[in-house]
Amino acid sequence: ASSHRRSPSSSFLGSSRIVAPSGSSSSGSSSALCMKTIAVIGASGLTASECAYQALKDGDTVVGLTRNPSNVKIPAGSGGSDAGKPLEDPNLTVIGGDVTNPADVAKVFEAGDIDGVVVALGGKTSDVGDTMLTDGTENVIAAMKEKGIQRLAVVTSIGAGDSKDQAPFFFKILMMTAMKKIFNDKNNQEAAVAKSGLEYCIVRPRGLTVDAPTGVVNVIEGEAGSITRA
Length: 230
Fold this sequence. Notes:
Blueprint: E1 2-5, E2 37-41, H1 46-57, E3 61-66, H2 76-79, E4 92-96, H3 102-110, E5 116-119, H4 125-128, H5 132-147, E6 151-155, H6 169-176, H7 180-194, E7 199-204, E8 208-209, E9 227-228
């Protein structure tokens, strides 16, 4: 995978207080435990569900946004024998909505004091439109700025932005033909993030699988390899 980062010292970790979902009471300071409230945009997706599931297992609170709340499942990679069951947790709030609708995005940031945001959107352009990634991410950025939230991680793809040379030859052909629209959207999405002024990390994976996590990540030069979502 390739990544592009602004403010490399930033992390979702750090001292903070636990903030319970809207409608329940805060449980006080968590400076020692470093628990956070993380928004996951696109929460029913294969990668986003890993983000949500692993954050919950780490003791964080998660607020997810998805068009299909009933599709938020325990992921195959990390979920083991529970994979495919509904993802339910007292620290999880799932909001049904469309990321291209600013009012729906605003609901995420009204559900709790968000510390950081993960955007892991997907879908075919024929289903979600030619500009969903860019429009949705711009809505998220606007909502973050309104609330004073700085930390943003965005999952795009190898081949996006300045990572074209890391894509395999056959994938480059797809990028210029069948996947041209989606890569135009990914490039514009990355540009919106880069000019946002936020503390961001763009992650560009290739060959995502639903296998169990290996605990091993190889950082390489040149053509990117596959990686498990977990």
